[in-house]
Design a protein that fits this description.
The structure is a homodimer of 574-residue chains.
Chain A lengths: L20 H8 L3 E5 L2 E4 L1 H20 L3 E2 L5 E3 H7 L1 H4 L6 E3 L5 E4 L4 H11 L8 E10 L14 E11 L2 H21 L4 E6 L8 E8 L5 E6 L5 E3 L22 E4 L6 H8 L7 E8 L2 E8 L6 H8 L4 E3 L2 H8 L15 E4 L8 E4 L5 E6 L9 E3 L17 E16 L1 H5 L3 E3 L5 E3 L1 E8 H11 L1 E2 L2 E2 L10 E5 L5 H16 L4 E3 L6 H11 L3 E5 L1 H5 L2 E6 L5 E5 H19 L1
Parallel strand pairs in A: 3-7, 15-17, 17-20, 27-28, 27-29
Antiparallel strand pairs in A: 1-2, 4-6, 5-6, 7-8, 8-24, 9-10, 10-21, 11-12, 11-21, 13-19, 14-15, 14-16, 18-19, 21-24, 22-23, 25-26, 29-30, 30-31
Helix pairs in contact in A: 1-11, 2-6, 2-11, 12-15
């Protein structure tokens, strides 16, 4: 296209609410505009990138045997009441009434609608397996929309739902999607990683997140330096340590110490002159209304998701003062395992510890030289803490490292959560009625675009990987008023177009500096600069946005050079 | 694709609310499913057709220089308050509040959002003209959703908005869209017609509807048998008749006649033994709060849109009893022009009439032999009636005919209605601030698909024109358990796929009759039947869905035959 005819309003200003680089750059490059809190319009440049992601997603979903459908955004309350989510889903579910005062919501996800669709049309095992997907608009009324299109309220999503006759089939469907997702993010030209994840409130048994690596990412990813293991922080497992024969010192007699106004681990450590590793924290949780104490070494943090999973609890929160008083006989802040009146779980970090310091269940007192078995018992040891760099890999002997990422995709094994509640049944080979087994698979389209920017930018703007670039080449005549320069630029532009390459001709009557700045800002991978001096030698300059590398080429050679680079980069991602 | 792997639930049952053939067939062919009143899911077969329409729309919009954007579905009340439509738009505008109790609506159209977008980013004449389009989901809370996806609440629409610096530019933008729309509907393989239309409540000065011809169409289309003139019924103009020197009889003395319980034209005609053509109806309207009488010949009907336009009224309705009493001195049912106390407009149909019968403005009385000028005066003559077959063309000497159609597209010249209200201004060459001139252009995507079916079906099902066919060919092995038959079918299928043709292999273990019925129902243009008998002669049957014509071909020849037919039909529509 000709730049002069494009609606591409670039600028320097960034809105005050733009915290992350992708948000700033998408505004500055004229990709998006905010309509209202968490709701954005895509301008032509932005929507071109969206369509590229969508196209790759479609091709890979189709290749994996999924079939495209299109489900409504406005959904009747009845289906959500049937699944139980009408009451359980929080305020993110935007509910409203139509002109006839019937209850509806804007779909934040489509498990209910798809399950309803499939239960009506699928009757026998011969119609299974089935995987239906759509690329469609979702709405989630986020409490704090932020980061531009990364965490907004209205957004485009690819969501797919698989239906299988049995567990083996469901596993196969999951693996197909896992493979498709790898293909998608690789073809987008992204550095990404699938990581093990907790299934969370959507339900189900097993899931992976697809993370785009970026320093600005909201999520911490745990991975092993030696093997393939990777997980998000919530899920990251910690290997059960070997029980060593003996800790460093012999058990000493337990001792009660007055510790006035000493509460935090740091304070206890300083007051008693012991390492935080020798102190044990005792946290009292309320799990579905019942108390439970969790013990963990003073230098570690509890992972509540793990506690919840180990307890099999639906709801888990820190206990209130009354529950703490009941369990420990003392107010908040002095809990300890000795004599406690509730079940006690211990993190693996306690396994090789003796002569611990613990709370005394008594105001302003701690106990020293406390020893497991002798002084208190635990119901079981479990992996209850948050992973840290340097931990041992749960799969091999490697060491755990951390990196940051942005979640762009998520694959879930849902099991029968929805098909059971909504009676999505089929007749098997023996004529017996069975419940379908489901999986669900999402990709945030706009978020993938934003994540790509978070991974690929410099101080001058965005740097698109070739597969997602809105245009692959920009031809910049240094001065459009010099006829020879303009003609050469037009010729190169026409030839690239004829070859089917996506190219912009910057035919604006602007200074070269302005054009270069815009080309850098919008991140076009290849820039051809046509100037009078080089043209006199039959040459033009080719600059690679990513490396900044600039080379002179014979104009006769230029188009084939450019096409080779494009083909090579597209091939690398394919 | 293999039929056995497709989610294509065909059936015989039609829902009780399915009144039109497209609705019935889309359900039976497994294209759509109803989620709730006026809200439908598209199944894979249906969505394939949707995507074909979208693709044609995109290509032609891009070719016309429009640029694709994507605007939000959820829109803040503030913008609608600014344009004034928050209060004026009826209950079709679905309003709701978010978690922070702020007012929003679901976009039924996007004039407000696009005008807001453009006013922020377009500052000078150099950025104009501009045409931005999107293909996006709309919601209109219809009082009576019906006809499946033809008049539903949630639907996909292509909407485009042009912004120009002056009238000449706006006219050019309109013409570009007019051409693009012709290209789109021709390329869809539809028999359609652009017709002049009233601009209606969206505002603006000038518009055309694009109508797909179908007997079941909701709209009557008026066209001239001789020239190009075509309009919808609301808009259809009637030529001003020549004033003839004299009517058939000389003016007779006016006479008052008692006509007890005689009210309708038929009753007056029978009671007084005069033709309805001699009787004049007097209708009292309330135009923006003021009364106005409209006279029309007894055998004709008033077109209220024309009355409204002639009066320049914002609101027009039939007057209530009080207004009638004030204007005529009599209760409802006896109004006449003689002595009436309000402005009087006469339809052209009165121009060559004398010795008329009119209401007497007195209960149970009519006046006979009433003559214009002598007995009453009119403010002006105008075209105020509904067009009828046999009327004279307003453009030439031809005769008006009627045909039925379905509106699938609409192009509007909006003028400055929104740009003025919302201050979409730009600086012209002289640095003066001016208001942008807008146009808007819509195509109902789902409705185009339904209209195509209304135009192309028979008792066995749908008959897709080649460009919109979800698949172009279906290969039907008569019996999949005969290895030679199945192999031949597989080979043909593979060869067609290799050539990039969209083909289904009906590999289901079903009777041939069942397969033929499904192939007819889903309307695949070309059917290849592979049976043992013909195969023994190296032949297979090719059946054309549209004509029912069936021919035998050498299998070695078949694929090239099929490809020729496809290419020819695609070319005809291109």
């Amino acid at each position: 296209m000709r730049y002069s005819e494009m609606h591409l309003p670039t600028g320097r200003e960034v809105p005050s609410d733009a915290e992350v680089i992708s948000h700033k750059l998408m505004i500055r490059a004229g990709m998006i505009r905010k309509l209202t809190s968490g709701i954005y319009s895509y301008l032509p440049l932005g929507y071109r990138v969206i369509r590229k992601v969508e196209q790759i997603v479609r091709e890979e979903m189709d290749r994996a045997g999924a079939q495209e459908v299109h489900l409504p955004m406005v959904q009747p309350a009845e289906l959500w009441q049937e699944s139980g989510r009408w009451t359980f889903y929080g305020k993110e579910l935007l509910r409203f009434r139509d002109r006839n005062a019937r209850d509806y919501c804007l779909g934040p996800t489509h498990e209910e609608v798809i399950t309803d669709l499939v239960r009506h049309d699928v009757k026998t095992y011969r119609q299974l397996p089935l995987n239906l997907y759509q690329i469609q608009t979702k709405f989630r009324d986020e409490v704090r929309p932020r980061f531009g299109v990364m965490r907004c309220r209205e957004f485009g999503m690819k969501d797919a739902y698989s239906f299988d006759a049995d567990e083996a089939g469901a596993e196969k469907s999951y693996q197909k999607m896992f493979t498709a997702y790898n293909n998608i993010f690789r073809r987008c030209g992204l550095k990404y990683r699938p990581v093990e994840a907790d299934s969370g409130s959507i339900g189900g048994s097993y899931s992976h997140e697809f993370m785009v690596m970026a320093e600005s990412g909201e999520d911490a990813i745990v991975f092993c330096e030696k093997c393939n293991y990777a997980a998000n922080l919530e899920k990251a497992e910690i290997a059960r340590p070997e029980k060593t024969a003996i800790a460093e010192t012999d058990p000493l007699p337990m001792e009660s110490v007055e510790t006035p106004n000493v509460r935090t681990i740091e304070e206890v450590s300083g007051f008693l002159n012991v390492s935080p590793k020798q102190i044990v924290k005792t946290l009292i949780f309320n799990a579905d209304g019942k108390s439970c104490a969790v013990l963990i070494r003073g230098d570690q943090e509890v992972n509540e998701i793990k506690v919840k999973n180990v307890l099999g609890a639906a709801q888990l929160e820190l206990a209130d003062d009354e529950m703490i008083l009941q369990a420990t006989g003392a107010p908040r802040g002095f809990a300890g395992p000795v004599g406690i009146k509730t079940r006690v779980l211990a993190d693996y970090s306690l396994m090789n510890l003796n002569n611990m310091v613990v709370g005394a269940n008594k105001t302003d007192y701690h106990l020293k030289n406390v020893n497991l078995e002798r002084d208190f018992k635990v119901e079981s040891y479990a992996d209850l803490r948050i992973s840290r760099p340097g931990d041992l890999c749960p799969r091999c002997s490697g060491m755990i490292q951390f990196v940051r990422g942005i979640e762009v995709g998520h694959v879930f094994k849902l099991g029968v959560k929805y098909s059971k509640a909504m009676k999505a049944l089929y007749l098997d080979r023996d004529g017996k009625e069975k419940t379908m087994i489901m999986g669900c698979y999402g990709i945030g389209i706009g978020r993938t675009v934003a994540a790509c920017i978070e991974q690929n930018f410099d101080q001058n703007g965005m740097i698109w990987p070739m597969p997602l670039a809105p245009f692959k080449v920009i031809v910049v005549p240094v001065n459009i008023n010099e006829p020879a320069v303009m003609k050469a630029a037009e010729d190169i532009y026409a030839e690239l177009q004829k070859c089917g390459e996506e190219v912009i001709l910057d035919d604006r009557d602007e200074r070269a500096g302005v054009k270069f700045k815009d080309a850098d800002l919008i991140g076009i991978p290849l820039r051809i600069v046509v100037g009078a001096k080089n043209l006199a030698n039959g040459q033009a300059e080719l600059k690679i946005r990513k490396t900044g590398q600039s080379t002179l080429h014979a104009i006769t050679d230029l188009v084939s050079q450019v096409r080779e680079i494009i083909a090579a980069e597209m091939h690398n991602a394919a």
